[in-house]
Amino acid sequence: MKNVLISLGQRSYNIAIGSGILDRAGALLAELPLGKKALLVTNPAVGDLYAARVENSLAQAGFRVFRAQIPDGEQYKSLQSAATLYDRAFAAGLDRSCPVVALGGGVVGDLGGFAAATYMRGVPLVQIPTTLLAQVDSSVGGKVAVNHPRGKNIIGAFYQPVLVLSDTETLRTLAGREVRSGLAEVIKYGVIRDGRFFGWLEKNIGKVLALDPEALAHVVETSCRVKAAVVEEDETEQGTRAILNLGHTVGHAVESLTYYTDCNHGEAVAMGMATATRLAVQLGLCQAGEEKRVNELLHKAGLPLQIPGKLDPHEMIKAMARDKKAYGGEITFILPKTVGEVIIKNNISETDIVKAVQACQGQNL
Ligand code: NAD
Ligand code: GLY
After folding, report:
1. Quick check: 364 pLDDT over 70?
2. Are the C-beta atoms of 305 and 342 separated by less than 8 Å?
3. Average pLDDT of the chain?
4. Does the pLDDT value for residue 324 go beyond 80?
């Protein structure tokens, strides 16, 4: 088992990574000062596969577990679902010492995390992420949220878990497209902070796609280390943490203008990374050879680079300005200088953005 510590003073916590960790959940939770009732939040798909193992392990460690299943899907990351969880927690008699255990992908993690942050003004949160995206990104760093009908993740908080348990074996049952979606965030970590990791991915992407256990553990551990370092520097996104949004400025615009149907999050982020890198080359901040490396790795990971031609670049700019990451309509881009280093930049002209978007609509690897 590998361990990554996130050092945030009193809010510090461990991420345990490895194969078969689900069966050790009880023993690992028992090391923490937690009440002995737990609310296990999951969905039917993940629940059928993995909830019994977690429940048995927790029961063996003396926890009484109450399962709350929310239907599968982004639309259930809502205030209504959170209300269901509060009802269940209250009926089960959970007090402020009792943990919410979120078992699932980013939807379950964000929703369970939001309920934990708000029930009785905050109860301990344990994340057990079961998608690659959740293991490398959403379970780590403390962003929890539900959606509002007008926008994604509009109602939320920064609320760190007390423990994250990433069982890489659970990724074996994940659809290939979901694995590739998570890989977009993994590649992002290489580009923003870790050129050596990027080089490792260039050589080993085949093993990762084949779900080789050692390769997966290395990917999850290294991604968590990069994210941990950024979050430790800037927990509440006053500055540096924004680099985690590489590819998201354009990615969110693609997702919202296609109504979250044409592509998944990782695919949109891949298009966004390709566009940000194109823009950086255009502005003379990055060498064309670095762009080639980024695009080739995204392509090898089975991710799309081409923005759908039906999207109007000017409409995309409007969507970028509406995004909650834009302040006063000011669009921020994260731009690679080299593989392993990015800068945060605003004041980019609309002409430059349109040119980069159009280049990515035309490109084909
Ligand atoms: P998801 O939670 O919808 O999971 C994808 C699908 O995989 C679902 O159908 C789920 O039931 C299924 N699934 C999960 N684990 C499985 C397994 N081991 N085997 C088989 N099927 C499994 O999607 P996601 O990509 O994990 O997360 C997306 C969400 O994460 C979005 O709501 C996004 O806003 C959020 N997010 C949050 C952060 C953050 O920092 N909090 C960061 C990135 C994304
Ligand atoms: N997923 C971006 C962040 O955690 O800041």
Report:
1. no
2. no
3. 96
4. no
How far apart, in whole angstroms, are the C-alpha atoms of residue 65 and residue 57? 10
Amino acid identity for residue 327 in this structure: Y
The CATH code of the domain at 177-361 is: 1.20.1090.10
129, 251, 354 from 164: Cα distances, Å:
8, 27, 41
* Ligand 2 midpoint to CA 141 (Å): 7
**At the topology level of CATH, where does 2-173 sit?**
Rossmann fold (3.40.50)
Residue 49 in tokens:
């596969």
- With the most atoms of ligand 1 within 8 angstroms of its CB, the residue from 107, 153, 223 to mutate is 107
Q: Is 265 a catalytic residue?
A: yes
Active site includes 241?
Answer: yes
Rounded CA separation 3/16 (Å) = 5
Read off the tokens for 114.
């939001």
Instruction: Please report, as a single letter, which amino acid is at residue 233.
Output: E
Of the listed ligands, the closest to the CA of 188 is 2
Domain ranges of the chain: 2-173, 177-361
Ligand nearest to the CA of 105: 1
Global confidence as pTM = 0.97
